[in-house]
Write a structure and sequence with these properties.
Elements: H1 11-19, H2 41-49, E1 51-56, E2 65-66, E3 73-74, H3 76-88, E4 91-96, H4 102-107, E5 113-117, E6 127-129, E7 135-143, E8 161-165, H5 169-177, E9 182-186, H6 189-197, E10 203-207, H7 208-215, E11 218-219, E12 222-223, E13 226-228, E14 235-243, H8 249-264, H9 267-278, H10 288-291
Parallel strand pairs: 1-4, 8-9, 8-10
Antiparallel strand pairs: 2-3, 5-14, 6-14, 7-10, 7-13, 7-14, 11-12
Length: 292
Amino acid sequence: MNTVPPRHMSRRRILGLAATGLLGGTLDGRRADATTDDPNTVLHRIISRGTLNVPVMVGEEPGYVKDPATGEWSGYYLDFLRSIASVLKVDIRTVETNWGNLAADFEAGKIDVAVGVNPNAQRALVVDYLPDPIFFDAWSVLMPPDRHVSSWSELDRPESRVVVQLGSTMQIVAGAQLPAATIVPVADRATALLEMESGRTDAVVLAVFDALQIASRRINGHPLGAVSVPRPMLRSPVMLCVAREAGNEGFISYLTAWTLEQRSLGMVRASLERGWKAAGIDVAAIPAEILE
């Protein structure tokens, strides 16, 4: 008996097969078989399970925002993920993680799709990146309020102590642009900011939207830091990625269409602007080249 659903089978029919066990896999894990000729296998699994499993990260505002009182998640990355799930008519299931563990989470089958990732060749050995970015960000440095740099070379000195998040693209950027500086990898953004507040670092490498949100905070009435976008400006594509596995072609096709639709109709920009406003980010402070 053919247990692989046809490519254009309705969602109701897919769910019916899943309920009777005829999809050849479990409802909450990856298929038992590692190969399949059906490009919609991953889509079938997500719909059958009824949830889209997605990563979320504490301290990664304004893309990921956790309400400490309720534990609820918001932010523009969650807006994007909920939109992706709504078309599939499934719920969101969040998995707390960090950038350094993302590839391992994909390999373990904990998550289906990640949003907000930057191109990373090491990570691309185990995940598939979508070909089109959702939007562009840029790499910046958060420095003490009275400091500013106009170029990366101004920081590229042995006496410069620059903090990055371990296993992140920030670490790659710092290694490439600041080979003479002292690069200090830390576990997460909260630890990086503690280094800044304590005066133990000259700069923290961050995506500019994240840095602007942090700089808007005040401690004892004073800004936490100032944001510089060093030249040459390094524009960073913000992308989606999925686990590399047989049968993910239909899922990738769907996500590619979703990305192009969201961008072309202005929905990405609208979500970003809502997130910037909620985070206290002044759009006028964002370099015009990034928003083009």
